[in-house]
Amino acid sequence: MKRLAVLVASAAVLTLTPAMASGAQAGPVHRLRAGLATNWAGYVAHGGPFSSASTTYAEPSISCGANENSAVASFAGIDGANSPTVEQIGTFATCKNGSIAHQAFFEMFPKAAVGIGKRVRAGDSLTATVLATSTKTFTLSLVNHTEGWTFSTQQRSRKAQRSSAEAITEAPSLRGSGVVNLANFGQINYSGTTANGQPISNFGPEEVTMVTNGGTVKAQPTALSGGSFSVVWHHA
Under a CB-based contact definition with an 8 Å cutoff, are residues 138 and 155 in contact? Predict the structure, then answer.
């Protein structure tokens, strides 16, 4: 495992290392109001306490212009919608000046994201799971069904509230620089999405659409059926 190195960025420019979304964080929701956020798109179950969150998705193939710097994260997580922590695991897809990279990660926000030293490629089928094994202890696991590997780690969070469970497409953030440009991922399909071992639809979850501060839609989830939905890219 390697800690994600610090990104150097100007106000609107994200600088990425060739290997990963360095220093990018998939943090709590930046909510404008119910159902709208500047960094999250997907479904969030409320009302906890939640003991698990899981989803299966295909790592997206992103477009990447010659002068483009952008990123997208996909993850399963507990907390982050109504609480200051997020216990999460998933993947980053990043674009830096025409070069695309994919990186698995886990994160116990507000701690920095930690890179997972396993190969991830566009199209890989991944299952991300967060399991609360006690009030403050979590097992985060990622299975790459395509590449044939499994990663698991046990982490602690003293401030975890377990108040939400989610499957999310995110425009990552940089400390001090805000939300980065959302890479054009086309569409990410999620299936088998559960909270507390049940289809997330059983919880009447909040549908969250990602928008700019001015209200332009950046990414939007489709209708939820059991534990299946898609998130569709609209705008960077």
Answer: yes
Q: Half-sphere exposure (CA, 13 Å, Cβ side) for 130? A: 30
What are the backbone dihedrals phi and psi of residue 55, each rounded to the nearest 5 degrees, phi first? -155, 155
Instruction: Going from the first residue of the chain to its last (236 residues), give the mean pLDDT of each consecutive group of 10, the final group possibly shorter.
Output: 31 32 78 96 97 98 95 97 97 94 96 95 98 96 98 97 98 80 98 98 98 96 98 97
The residue whose two tokens read 């003991």 is: 51
Spatial separation of the C-alpha atoms in residues 121 and 124, rounded to whole Å: 6
Tokens for 132, please give them: 């609360």
Query: CB–CB of 7/173 below 8 Å?
Result: no
Q: What's residue 205's pLDDT?
A: 98
Distance between CA atoms of residues 160 and 158, nearest Å? 6
Q: Amino acid letter at 84?
A: P
pLDDT at residue number 25: 83
Secondary structure of 81-136 in the HEC alphabet?
CCCCCEEEEEEEEEEECCEEEEEEEEEEECCCCEEECCCCCCCCEEEEEEEECCCC
- CA distances, 119 to each of 2, 94, 122, 149 (Å): 13, 14, 10, 9
Q: Do residues 69 and 15 touch, judged by C-beta distance below 8 A?
A: yes
Q: 52 with 200: CB under 8 angstroms? A: no
| pTM strictly above 0.85 | yes
Domain 2-233 classification at class level: mainly beta
Pair type for strands 125-132 and 114-116: unpaired
* Domain map (residue ranges) of the chain: 2-233
